[in-house]
Amino acid sequence: MRRIDHVVLAVRDLEQTADLYRRLGFQVGARNRHPWGTENRLIQFGSSFIELITVGQDPHRIPQRQPRQFSFGEFVRNYLRQQEGIAMLVLSSDDACSDAALFAHHGIGDFEPFSFSRKATRPDGSETQVGFTLAFATDPAAPELGFFVCQQHYPENFWNRVFQQHPNAAVDISGVTLAALQPERHRTFLSRFSGTSPRPLPGGGLLWDLSRSSIEVLPTAAPNPSEWPAMLTTLSVQVPEPGRARSILAAKGFPCTNTAQGVIVPAEALHGVSLRFTHIQHPGADGSEPD
Hints:
Number of strands: 16
Radius of gyration: 18 Å
Structural class: alpha+beta
Mean pLDDT: 92
CATH topology of the largest domain: 2,3-Dihydroxybiphenyl 1,2-Dioxygenase, domain 1
CATH superfamily of the largest domain: 2,3-Dihydroxybiphenyl 1,2-Dioxygenase, domain 1
Strand order of the largest sheet: 2-3-4-1-5-8-7-6
Strand content: 35-45%
Helix content: 10-25%
Number of helices: 6
Number of domains: 2
Shape: globular
Order of helices and strands: EHEEEHEHEEEHEHEEEEHEEE
Largest sheet: 8 strands, mixed
CATH class of the largest domain: Alpha Beta
């Protein structure tokens, strides 16, 4: 069963956003620069991470899209021309090349796998190598959003407990929410993308249960600011004590609301992303090393 590997959160000011997430109680990693024109900072958990990403200062480094090639830099740039927020949902993969062929067979993606590696810095300051292969997919009912799976080639170099120690005690991403005008239009794509079938939610929503996490699609009657038919609106993060997270939020002046699902910071305070702190509920989401 796949799990959420990470979410790509596109922002216009990477340093300001990194400071914002530190104030939320997260440890934010060093700035990384990509040869295709984007720059990021990561927030790592036990088996998932948040990728804060922006476009670098040299737009000429962004390659133009070619047939069967997904231009990551172009996608982020185009997204940010409209808004900030969760631009992409990324699931785990054991074999991204096979997944690319599977997506093509299902008619949800006909892109060549994309592989890259880079140097990373360990907590002690020494360098190591990390590498990834990505397989992209497209939801016809949400063409403005990005979806791909990620295979890690050196997971022992990437995942590190030192980077996973957060003042708010967050341990993993527990789910994402897609707000959609017509949830049923996303059933086929998300089932093929995730490799599992959904169960119904009250009110016409759908829920895909993944390993340690989930994807929910909830109906919305109000158009979003960009008038897109669907948006990734909410990121849920597991914590052992939501009350502790709320105390940190209150001390830093963040507005938050207690709900049955957890403590929520509204999208207006976080670049269009609602952040929900939920109690640990998925087996294995205890800060242990990923599968």
